[in-house]
Every structure is written in structure tokens, then in C-alpha cells.
Specification:
14 helices; 275 residues; single chain; mainly alpha; Serine Threonine Protein Phosphatase 5, Tetratricopeptide repeat; globular
Length: 275
């Protein structure tokens, strides 16, 4: 029973983290892997060239065998180039590259959605784990890995998966956000997702002050950075937290401040108009 309660708390902490972060998603088309067709043609054309320039009477049998054997690497090369496993591996590499180079969180979340629908999320998580081990000083990798694990958590939860599996994914994601912040304490995305997850804890656990402190500090940090549309979400979640702990005036003031800085953000506009 105790184990189940702990797991339930962890689930509450992360249930909304994957959905709060990004709105107005942009689709990123994937570039298809080219199919090699030249090698089989070479295997067919090589004997024709030989017949055109040589006479059967003067051609030693051994040279025909040599020509036949010389064609084998060409055929094997064609087989290797079209190997489905190689194509799948290349696709995962390209997907991870796209995630790490995404210009903003919205694009990254759109990629995660595509990967989940394509059944590639587990492979992407494995690739990110390998890259994190190979690049221990890059905060973007553990941050992206944590987000990948939250997306998998959401998929497992929506499918009615085991609570223990959900709890493990939640803890792994949190550990990766902590790893990213250890490398770079000012990493915006790791701070925001971690605070948003904490905001999902039940009210009776009194995590509100900690969430407010973290998000308020993040807003102060945003003031020193080049403005980005995703920064509006910090005001959204902070206002929601004030509302949850029974301070509606501070919630409204937070959303209004956010609208002043991000007047076109639909979520902030909706929060204010609903009051």
C-alpha cells in the first residue's frame, strides 16, 4: 500500500509536465532516406561490356572467373545499403539530431509526438542515453532525455500501464533534469519542466511555496535573456499555482504581467478572460 501511494504521488507530480510546456506546435517534415538503385544495374551491365570487347577464343577461363568474383562486392554493397536495420538506425540518429537542434520547445514536442506515433520513442531514449554517456558536459542531452521519458510516461499512463513503470519513468526523468541543471544551472527548459512537474503534486503536500520560488526565479532569469514565446508559459504555470493555493489576486496579477510581455499568448489571454 505504501509503495502504491508513493507511486501515485510521483504520477501526480509528472502527469501534466508533458502537456503544459508547448502550444501552437509546428510540424517538422522528415527527410526520407534515399534508395540506392545503381549497384544492381552495374552487376547486369558488367558482363555486357566484357562480351563487346573480347573474343571467346582468346579469353582465358580464369579471367571470366575473376570477373565474376569481382562483381560480388558490388552486389553485397547494394544489399548493405538497403538493409532495413541500417535505415532504421540512421532514422533514429536523424531524429535525435532534430530533437537536439530544435529551435524551440514546440518543435521538439511535435517531434516527440511523431516518434511516439511511429513507435520509435524507446529507440530514441536509448540513443539519448548513449549520447549522454558520451557527452557528459552537454546539458541539452539529459534535458531532452528527461522530456522523452515524460512523453513515454504519458503514453504508458494513457494506455493504462503499470503504476510502477510510470513511477520509474517519473524518477528517471527527474534525475535527468537534475543532471542537466548540475551541468548548467541556468538551463531554462530543465528548470521549467522540473517546476511544472512539482506543480502537479497534490495541494495537501504543500509544494506550492517551492513551485512559486522556482518559477519566480525563472522569471527573473528570463528578464536577462532574449525573449522567447515559450517564456509566457512560466507566467501561466505560476499564476495557476497561486490560484491552486487560494491566492486568486496574485494569480491574476501574474497572468496580467505575462500578457504585458507576451500580448499574443492565447493561454494567458484565456486565463484573464475567464476571471
Amino acid at each position: 500500500m505504501k509503495s502504491f501511494i508513493i507511486t501515485l504521488i510521483i504520477v501526480c507530480a509528472t502527469a501534466t509536465a508533458g502537456t503544459v510546456i508547448y502550444l501552437d506546435r509546428q510540424k517538422t517534415p522528415r527527410t526520407p532516406t534515399p534508395v540506392v538503385e545503381s549497384s544492381p544495374k552495374q552487376a547486369e551491365e558488367a558482363p555486357q561490356e566484357k562480351i563487346a570487347v573480347s573474343k571467346p577464343e582468346s579469353q582465358p577461363a580464369v579471367s571470366q572467373n575473376a570477373d565474376a568474383s569481382s562483381q560480388i562486392p558490388v552486389v553485397n554493397s547494394a544489399v548493405n545499403e538497403t538493409n532495413p536495420d541500417d535505415d532504421s538506425t540512421n532514422s533514429i540518429h536523424k531524429s535525435v539530431d532534430a530533437l537536439l537542434s530544435a529551435k524551440n520547445g514546440r518543435q521538439r514536442q511535435e517531434l516527440f509526438d511523431q516518434l511516439q506515433k511511429g513507435g520509435q520513442l524507446d529507440s530514441v531514449i536509448s540513443e539519448l542515453q548513449q549520447r549522454a554517456a558520451q557527452n557528459p558536459n552537454d546539458p541539452e542531452i539529459p534535458t531532452t532525455l528527461g522530456e522523452a521519458e515524460l512523453n513515454k510516461l504519458r503514453a504508458v499512463r494513457d494506455a493504462g500501464g503499470d503504476n510502477n513503470d510510470i513511477g520509474i519513468l517519473a524518477m528517471q526523468a527527474d534525475q535527468n533534469f537534475n543532471a542537466a541543471l548540475k551541468i548548467d544551472p541556468s538551463n531554462w527548459e530543465a528548470q521549467f519542466v522540473k517546476a511544472s512537474a512539482l506543480a502537479g503534486w497534490p495541494v495537501e503536500l504543500n509544494k506550492g511555496p517551492e513551485v512559486i520560488q522556482q518559477l519566480s526565479s525563472l522569471i527573473d532569469q528570463q528578464e536577462t535573456m532574449t525573449p522567447q514565446s515559450q517564456f509566457a508559459q512560466t507566467y501561466v504555470v505560476l499564476g495557476d499555482e497561486y490560484q491552486k493555493i487560494g491566492q486568486p489576486d496574485k494569480a491574476l496579477a501574474t497572468w496580467q504581467l505575462g500578457v504585458q510581455k507576451f500580448p499574443n499568448d492565447p493561454t494567458l489571454q484565456q486565463r484573464i478572460s475567464s476571471r
